[in-house]
Amino acid sequence: MKEECLICKDSLEYLQEDILMECVICRKSEFSKTRCLNGHYVCNECHSKGVDSIVGLCLSESSSDPTEIIGKMMDMPFCHMHGPEHHIMVGAALLTAYRNAGGQIDLPKALSEMITRGSKVPGGACGFWGACGAAVSTGMFMSIITGSTPLMNESWGYSNIMTSRSLARLGEIGGPRCCKRNSYMSILTAIEYVEKITGVRMQKTQIVCRHMSSNSQCIGKRCPFHPSNQ
User: Fold this and answer.
1) How far apart are CA 5 and CA 17, in angstroms?
2) What is the pTM (predicted TM-score) of this model?
3) How far apart are CA 47 and CA 41, in angstroms?
C-alpha cells in the first residue's frame, strides 16, 4: 500500500510558501508547507512519535552494520515510508554500529543527543532547504563522536565534510525524495568517511530495496538499491 498522508493515505502536496496549519492529531497550529490533498496536516512531533523506542533496540544491538540496524528501525511501528523520524534514525544507527565496531563513545548519552538534534530538522528539508535530513544526520553523528562545537578546528571540518559528502551522493541520484534511499545512501557514505577519519571500520551489506510498493514516487532503476540493479 502506498504511504502518504498518515490520516487518509492520500498524496501529499508541498506548497511554495508557509501557511498556518493545524495538526489533526495534537491540534497544534504552526506554519508549514506540507499537507495532503484533503488538507490534513501532521506536525513533525506527531509524525515522529515513538521514535524514542529505538533507544532500547540500539542499546541491545551487537551488530556493527548500520544498514542492518536502520533496517530493523524501519520495521518498527513508529516508522513511516517518509518522514522526519529518519533524521534521527540515520545517526542513531551509525552511533550504535560505531560503538559496536570499537568506537569509544558513551552510547546512551550519544543517542539522547542524537534524538535532540535530529528532531530539530523538519520534514521536507531536502526540497525546501537543499539539505536532506538523512545527510545532515550523518554530520550530526560525526559531530557527536568527535565532540565538535562551532569553535573546534578539525572536528568542525570533519562534521561539515561528512554532511557535504552525503548530500553530494544524494544530489547525484536526484529526486523525488525517498527517505529510505536517502537514509541508506547517507549511511554508506558515512561508513567510508568515518573509517578514513577514525580508523573504525563498520560493516555493510548489500542493500536491496523492499519498500518500493509503499513509495508513490519510487524512481525505479535510477535508485542504486532497486532490485534490478543488484
Assistant:
1) 20
2) 0.89
3) 10
